[in-house]
């Protein structure tokens, strides 16, 4: 089903027994996150290293570090935090990397 407006979605949600005020907003937020993830995956498909992919998923994808940890096979939840910390330090020393990430 293609929903062209919030009003149509609210109507469909009401017919489906959902609470339009809360569930509609959550649905839109989830859709926006999924679209952003798909867009960033396409953009980063050619990126060789995982560190930039991890950084972008946490920084711009609004994903929790724990979820990104699991996706990249880290055993602890601090793995992504360490990757981001190292990348930020490297950005201060590497102008090319800094401009790429900006």
Describe the protein in words.
This protein is mainly alpha-helical. The chain has two domains: 1-43, no CATH class; 48-102. The protein is built from six helices and no strands. It has helices at 6-15, 20-43, 50-59, 65-72, 78-93, 95-101. Helix 1 crosses helix 2 (20-43), helix 4 crosses helix 5 (78-93) and helix 5 packs across helix 6 (95-101). The mean pLDDT is 76.
Main features:
102 residues, mainly alpha, 2 domains
Mean of residue pLDDT?
76
Largest sheet: none
Shape: elongated
Oligomer: single chain
Order of helices and strands: HHHHHH
Structural class: mainly alpha
How many H/I helical runs? 6
Extended strand count: 0
Rg result: 18 Å
Q: Identify low-pLDDT runs.
A: none
Indicate the percent of residues in helices.
over 70%
Give the tally of structural domains. Answer: 2
Strand content: under 5%
State the end-to-end distance: 37 Å
Short description:
With 102 residues, the chain is mainly α. It has 6 helices and no strands.
List the helices and strands and how they pair.
Elements (H helix, E strand, L loop, with lengths): L5 H10 L4 H24 L6 H10 L5 H8 L5 H16 L1 H7 L1
